[in-house]
Specification:
It is a single chain. By secondary structure, this protein is α/β, with parallel strands linked by helices. The chain has a nine-stranded mixed beta sheet with strand order 1-12-11-10-2-3-4-5-6, with helices on both faces. The chain has a three-stranded antiparallel beta sheet with strand order 7-9-8, covered by helices on one side. It has two domains: 173 residues, HAD superfamily/HAD-like (Rossmann fold, 3-Layer(aba) Sandwich), CATH 3.40.50.1000; 77 residues, Hypothetical Protein Ta0175, Chain: A, domain 2 (Alpha-Beta Complex). It has seven helices and twelve strands. Bound molecules: magnesium ion. The site of magnesium ion has 9 residues, from loops.
């Protein structure tokens, strides 16, 4: 990872950004981070939030933030505004999603039986396609327990991705990079041009984004999660979390002017 100030960002006009601990700071959307988002939008950048948070949260982000779309549940679906109507796209069709819910129910029963100390994420009721367990939000779960959870989820044929706050059981083949591609296609009506889009994140569930995009940035706290990343970001900010996002926004705006 090289310092962000060495990056050539002149070709970038789209930003796909993680939310937890990338845009937000310990769960809060701070004034500087939100202002950075609004300034990028005002300067003409296309913006897509891409989060492990529920699709129900992605709806609220797309409805109220100055962005073009929000991808939720690590790529399972995406939401965008069409006038004042919210529209939603999914990685999989309705029949497949119903089958996936049965897989999640089996995982839920299995984990409750074998790892009863684990709790589902407090935002689980707003989820439509995945099942998330709290590993670092309300609860601090030790690493061996996280590894046991990951093995148990995989034994059901589901994929797993781990963020700074949650471990997600994923019963399909979506990821953040595919989710952003779907959102760009549906919300912006164009194929994703990898040379023009930048991805910024901080954690294990950003791995697909770091691997796929041409321009990749980690906020400084990505250093805490490098053991979960087979592909680290190309550049890293000096500041952590929301301040790191604001640092990136300033660099993008400078590159433009
Ligand atoms: Mg994150």
């Amino acid at each position: 990872m090289r310092p962000l100030e060495e990056a050539d960002l002149g070709a970038v006009d789209g930003v796909a950004f993680d939310v937890d601990d990338t845009l937000t700071t310990h769960g809060a959307l701070t004034v500087p981070a939100y202002a950075a988002l609004a300034e990028l939008k005002g300067a003409g950048f296309r913006l897509i939030a891409v989060t492990g948070r529920p699709l129900g949260w992605a709806d609220a982000m797309a409805a109220t933030w100055p962005i073009d779309a929000a991808v939720g549940e690590n790529g399972a679906g995406w939401t965008w505004r069409d006038g004042r109507t919210l529209r939603t796209g999914y990685a999989d069709d309705p029949v497949t999603r119903a089958e996936q819910r049965d897989v999640l129910e089996a995982i839920r029963r299995d984990v409750h039986h074998h790892l009863p100390e684990l709790r589902e994420a407090s935002d689980q009721p707003a989820r439509r396609c995945d099942l998330a367990f709290d590993i670092g939000e309300g609860d601090q779960v030790p690493e061996p327990t996280v590894r046991a959870l990951v093995e148990r989820i995989r034994s059901h044929g589901a994929a797993v991705t781990v963020s700074s706050v949650h471990a997600h059981a994923i019963p399909g083949s979506w990821d953040k990079a595919r989710g952003v591609r779907g959102a760009v296609r549906d919300a912006l009506g164009e194929p994703l041009d990898r040379d023009r889009w930048l991805f910024v994140g901080d954690s294990g569930n950003d791995e697909a984004g770091f691997a796929f995009f041409e321009h990749t940035v980690g906020v400084a706290n990505v250093r805490d999660h490098l053991e979960r990343l087979s592909t680290p970001p190309a550049w890293v900010t000096q500041a952590e979390r929301g301040e790191g996002f604001a640092e990136l926004a300033a660099a993008l705006l400078r590159a433009r002017s």
